[in-house]
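Objective 1b of the project was to move from sequence-level analysis to a structural picture of ligand recognition. The entry below was assembled by the postdoctoral researcher (A.K.) and checked by the PI before modelling. It contains the amino acid sequence of the target and the SMILES of the bound compound, zinc ion.
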Amino acid sequence: MAKNILEGEDILIEEFKKESNYVLVTMEEPYSIIQECLNPKHVIFNYDMSEENLMKLASNNIEGDVIYGFGGGTACDTAKYLATKWNRPLIITPSVISVDAWLCKQIAIRTNGRVRYIDGIKPDKFILDYSIIRKGPGLLNKAGVSDVLSITTALGDWNISRRVFGDRFDISYYNAAYNIAKTLLSREKDISELSTEGLRSIVMGQVEEVILCEEWGNSRPEEGGEHFLAYCLEEITKKHYIHGLLIALNIIVVLKLQRDEAVFDYESIYQFYKNIGLDISPQKQGITEEEYRKTLLATPRYVKEENLFNGIFSLKSIYDSKGEYSVNEIVDWVFSL
Ligand SMILES: [Zn+2]
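Corresponding predicted holo structure:
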């Protein structure tokens, strides 16, 4: 998968100059940055990820040997979809690194407000131009740490699932995931400055984590209660959130709930967010106290119903009736962050 990565500063325009017959799938903001230097056969802007709309796009007879996806998740996923349907080479160049989806071959499609994933073809190449990524919203790029730091909670959940439920476990994958998270946590200063090294450390964390999960066979080393809380909140409220910010918030909540099973300390992860300038407060994400309370209570059932990985939310007693680990006090704490 992601072994074919070209990265650096000011490299994208040079790469485009080498192509003469390509289709560019993009979004207005990133496109406007380099528009004058581009000469695509065709430009596609798409903001509608419904299957109906994607099928309509794919039914057009559009010329071009190569498909470029240049932008955020919607542009990259549209490019993946079209390259798959048209069976043409695909090059992915994200303009923002807020989630790891640009690396994955899955395509997120919306049907009746619900997200569903279908498999697309593997991109032939990835181009990471840090000078362009840096021009994107800093908060979004910093939120890219979350799909790497979700390892911190996933590992505690993995320990629980192994110990209580006898689920499949492998110490070498566990240690590899641990080291990916540790490495990212050591790059605090670079990330806070969004320097090339900072952006690169987020990208490499995402690359290593995605490769590790592919080799393991599923996202167990990287995904646990923090993602499940997010999916459950989205299911309850039907609202759309900035994935990396919501996951960042849920990571410290789940680390706290994991208590003795936590592999990382929630206070030091919270301090990391502060040091890199990532504001995770739920109010700014548009989450209400009542919504978060409902979600905490509903997630155990949601995990079971959706057949998600075992972990903290699979245990019988997660919350105390009062005190620090009661739902009320967890909500109070979350809303004081
Ligand atoms: Zn994620």
